[in-house]
Amino acid sequence: MLSVSGSSLTHLESRALRDGLNVSDGHPRMPLTPSQERIVAGIPDLFHEALRRPFDEVEEQAQRAFLHGIGQRRAPIGTGRLVSCYSSSTAMDMVARALAGRTSTVALIHPTFDNIPDLLRARGLRLVPVPEHELDGDHAPQLPEDVGAVFVTTPNNPTGWVLPAPAMARLAKSCARAGRVLAVDACFRAQDPRAQYDAYEILEASGVEWAVIEDSGKLWPTLELKAGFLAWGEGTDLPLLDAFNDVLLSVSPVVLLLIDRLAEDGGRGGYRDLHQLIAGNRALLRDLLAGGPMLVADPESRISVARVTWGPAGPDADTVYRELVGRGLHVLPCGPFHWARPAEGRRLIRVALGRDRAEVAAAGRVLAETARGWNL
Amino acid sequence: MLSVSGSSLTHLESRALRDGLNVSDGHPRMPLTPSQERIVAGIPDLFHEALRRPFDEVEEQAQRAFLHGIGQRRAPIGTGRLVSCYSSSTAMDMVARALAGRTSTVALIHPTFDNIPDLLRARGLRLVPVPEHELDGDHAPQLPEDVGAVFVTTPNNPTGWVLPAPAMARLAKSCARAGRVLAVDACFRAQDPRAQYDAYEILEASGVEWAVIEDSGKLWPTLELKAGFLAWGEGTDLPLLDAFNDVLLSVSPVVLLLIDRLAEDGGRGGYRDLHQLIAGNRALLRDLLAGGPMLVADPESRISVARVTWGPAGPDADTVYRELVGRGLHVLPCGPFHWARPAEGRRLIRVALGRDRAEVAAAGRVLAETARGWNL
Fold first, then answer.
1. Which of B86, B224, B249 minimises the CB distance to A27?
2. Staple A321 to which of A45, A333, B11, B229, CB 3.0 to 4.6 Å?
3. Backbone angles phi, psi at A26, to 5 degrees
């Protein structure tokens, strides 16, 4: 029998790369738009441009185009406190390593993608789950005294939940008072305008020690030609640059120039088109499931994945996952996102929306048909 | 004053990316050959090819072209025990993480590039230095009982030392008997035919638990469009796949196809040209320094860096490094390579040879002039 429990989400996603209809991983796999096609056709020119120009200049240009384009005008570009990494996970692990030198315990948003708790635990950190609603309530969350850092993903994967600006300010101030680091994973920021307030301005104003991870990897179907970005505050006492230097000298300036051009294109309508594609695919999935036992959760979510849920009389998510694989459809069961309490994910699967509309339609039809077979 | 001690080698290399003459990092920065130019011009076609084809097929093709081309015909392609990583350092850290779950102490080759001891230590591992001559002697090295793994870089950076096949077989058998893992970093393999015996055949035959890191990143001036590869044995009980899955779903298939084409080109004369460029630059450096107090060490080395040394009456390497930076020349002082006994590197600097001949000539002239100023 296809093994599910004990498998990481990425392991399940890698199966979906091999065959069948893949709405498993959250990587962008829709067709390139015509203007993106033109940018890809120009990669050899970007290569020669990168050969000619100093790396620092190329890097700052790309960081500025990308981060300013999504509202992050106070990101510390050009200060030495903003490094470009192979991916957001590479950046994430640098944060995990630096935090482990400072604290034993991290409060982590719950649920979230399982590689975050895995990377933190692999550095020896103990984790305390913090539900989303405790982060955006009227008060900063009450945390055990030994918590030395708070780690928040916003927009969160898989729920699409966003930490509003006032709640971030409240959380940052409370962390500053308690001497805790605030680490923010904003990898899905570009997909949701509600997350595009200037987080750096809020963090710097609060006096907290902070780190922020940004990502180009969720946006454009560039076949993993992407970068993650890791920034930290002037007063942040974490050896993040050492962790960076141990892993890389630099990302490819060709990839940085590609990000620069795609971010520019985003500002000229590319982001609007992306948001419409995702919203359209979410609505399509909702419509295809209408009338059956499955429904799309998180109606407010804007990110490129949708959770699908069903009532307690239905099978558990691992069973549904296996049944869907049998029909050639790859999704993710949501148990592993609920890293502290997997049972909370047992009536949820995740469907990727960063796909051609026809693929989401095909996936939706398989889901609807499967659910009809349950005879609930 | 320019700080040297306490800086990692990568930190010093990153300074060299900003200005002056950079023979600091070992990354390939020579001009593209005409056939490499044609491959780069075809990247948009590789992109569309990667869009059309299954990832696994592209990955296996690239791994086969690259690894078979450098003699590694028994590499475990297609078994699930050979993963493609963003870089060799990403692979290295996966090995460090997996080893930390199994042992407290690793015997590590001495000297070697400092990010290797740094990544191992960051995972909480204690290190025991093993000099090169103990690895290729008539007997396997005698190691303290608590050593749970041996980590060897071959060809080694910065010395160019190569572990011969019989010594690898002896070391592997001795590790097998003692229940130790043997980890091999073969990132510079493609530069030295003496390292192109089939390491996988030897490792599998010995019964040892093993991991091997390979790298495309030292060979072609593709501006960090590269991959590292991490392989392990069928009987190797290390959670390397978990460590991989926590960091990435996959590298870019565009980069894999680029490696495929460059490896093919390597077989058609590209490797011969690369070896000649490096050998020519090494000889040029030697000739430019002739008659002065500096000389090129490691005359047998074939890798794309050269150590330069001088007598005990000369200044120490950090002083020389600073003097050279003052003249606009970036090299590396060798202290940090000697991670257990930095003083052993105090009369050594490292000069990168993966450069245009004119750059190495300019660097050699600055070195010769600097050394003449010592009035020894």
1. B249
2. A333
3. -85, 10
- Supply the DSSP symbol for B268: I
Is pLDDT of B16 > 90? no
Give the pLDDT score at A353: 98
Q: Chain-centre distance of CA A340, in angstroms? A: 19
Substitution target from A17, A245, A330 for chain B, most B beta carbons within 10 A: A245
DSSP A214-259: EESTTTS-STT---EEEEE-TT----HHHHHHHH-S---HHHHHHH
pLDDT digits (tens, 9 = 90+) for B66-92: 999 999 999 999 999 999 999 999 999
Q: Which amino acid is at B357?
A: R
DSSP class of residue A111 equals S
Asked if A18 and B56 touch (Cβ cutoff 8 Å), the reply is yes
A43 in Cβ contact with A254 (< 8 Å): yes
- Is the pLDDT at A1 greater than 60, yes or no? no
What strands lie across the sheet with B295-296, from one edge to the other? B295-296, B305-309, B348-352, B332-333
Q: Is the dihedral of CA B103, A120, A226, B114 positive or negative?
A: negative
Under 8 Å CB pairs connecting chains A and B tally to 138
* Residue B222 neighbours by CB distance under 10 Å: 23
Nearest in space to B238 (alpha carbons), one of B151, B143, B110, B144: B151
pLDDT for B126 equals 98
Buried b (16+ CB within 10 A) or exposed e, B95-123: bbbbbbeebebbbbbbbbbbbbbbbbbbb
CATH number of this structure's domain A34-263 = 3.40.640.10
* CB of B113 closer than 8 Å to CB of B70: no
Choose among A17, A90, A241: nearest Cβ to B247.
Answer: A90
Q: Choose among B44, B93, B243: nearest Cβ to A247.
A: B93
Concatenated DSSP letters of B208-226: -EEEEEEESTTTS-STT--
> What distance in Å separates the CA atoms of residue A120 and residue B184, rounded to the nearest whole number?
27
Cis ω before B111 (30° cut-off from 0):
yes
Closest CA to B48 of A32, A68, A174: A32
Of A27, A248, A254, which is closest to B87 when you measure between CB atoms? A248
Instruction: Give the single-character DSSP code of A194.
Output: G
Strands B21-22, B329-330: pairing is parallel
Question: Which residue of A lies nearest to B20 if distances are taken between CA atoms?
Answer: A54
- Residue A98 and residue A209: Cα distance in Å, rounded? 12
Cα gap B148→B146, rounded to integer Å: 6
Q: Which residues of B touch A359 (CB under 8 A)?
A: none
- Does A224 sit within 8 Å of B252, measured CB to CB? yes
Q: In whole angstroms, what is the distance from residue A55 CA to residue B224 CA? A: 12
**The complex's ipTM?**
0.96
In whole angstroms, give the CA distance from residue A4 to residue A317. Answer: 10
Compute the half-sphere exposure of residue B155: CA atoms within 13 Å on the CB side of its CA: 24
Compute the nearest-CA separation of A245 from chain B (Å): 6
Name the nearest CA neighbour of B40 among A37, A49, A249: A49
B111: left (phi over 0), alpha (psi -120 to 50) or beta: beta
> Domain extents for chain A?
9-33+267-374, 34-263
CATH superfamily, with its number, for domain B9-33+267-374: Aspartate Aminotransferase, domain 1 (3.90.1150.10)
